[in-house]
Amino acid sequence: MRILVTGGAGYIGSHTAKELARAGHEPVVLDNLSRGHRWAVRWGPLEELDLADRAGLHGLFRKYEIEAVVHFAAFAYVGESMSSPSEYFRNNLVNTLNLLDAMRDAGTNQIVFSSSCATYGEPSHIPIREDHPQRPVNPYGESKLMAERALGWYERAYGLSWTSLRYFNAAGADPEGEIGEAHDRCRR
């Protein structure tokens, strides 16, 4: 399959692109490189594009005939989301809607969405199970939950097939030591 990996120049996205290639798929990485790393894209072509570029997205789907999407492109710093909620809602929610609309127009109906444990908020019990109530306490978690809800509505209205991954902590490098975390910029 030809699979679009948004945010594929980032930490989790680059690991996913590598594993997709290893499994015989063709990853196509979409990243605006605002927080990702060009050097982390080694297992398929890189399309330097922002999800806010709706025309560019539509062109990318036509160019590569994308069959499925793994969507990692997002801002992911809780503290930063508290001081810049508009940036988080625009990037994490509005840009996800842009992606979903490009998928729909291209006839691509499968997506894996990178969500977050931040959608749960303060736990009412531990361990936190997947069906735990989702009550975010910051704009980052709220933006991810809103995107999950949009996915559900796109499923009902357009037949989108989706799943959501809610990570707690991802850490480490791949076994070959080719890629790992890289925090080389100061964050607000």
Write the layout of secondary structure elements.
Elements: E1 2-6, H1 11-22, E2 26-31, E3 46-48, H2 54-64, E4 68-71, H3 78-83, H4 85-106, E5 110-114, H5 139-158, E6 161-165
Parallel strand pairs: 1-2, 1-4, 2-3, 4-5, 5-6
Helix pairs in contact: 2-4, 4-5
Give a short synopsis of this structure.
The chain has 188 residues and is α/β, with parallel strands linked by helices. Helix content is 38%, strand content 15%. The longest helix is centred in the middle third of the chain and has 22 residues, at 85-106.
Low-pLDDT stretches: none
State the helical fraction.
25-40%
Kindly report the spatial arrangement of strands forming the biggest sheet: 3-2-1-4-5-6
Distance between the termini: 38 Å
Q: How many domains would you count in the coordinates?
A: 1
Protein structure class: alpha/beta
CATH architecture descriptor text: 3-Layer(aba) Sandwich
Q: Write the CATH homologous superfamily.
A: NAD(P)-binding Rossmann-like Domain
Mean pLDDT over all positions: 92
Q: What does this 3D model show about the protein?
A:
The protein has 188 residues and is α/β, with parallel strands linked by helices. The protein has a single domain, classed as Rossmann fold. It has 5 helices and 6 strands. It has a 6-stranded parallel beta sheet, sandwiched between helices. Helix 5 links the parallel strand 5 (110-114) and strand 6. Helix 2 (54-64) packs parallel to helix 4 and helix 4 packs parallel to helix 5 (139-158). The longest helix has 22 residues, at 85-106. The chain starts with a strand and ends in a 23-residue tail after the last strand. The model has no long low-confidence stretch (mean pLDDT 92).
